[in-house]
Amino acid sequence: GLGDSGSKLCKANxxxxxxxxxxxxxxxGITPKATFISTLI
Length: 41
Description:
mainly alpha, elongated
């Protein structure tokens, strides 16, 4: 990542996005396997 404020915000929000995807997968009876592909380290 660039190490700028946008990169930091994206990294912080990523876990909430994954949790939301896992929630919907579980509610649909799908094994939760959400993945984000990112350049952030």
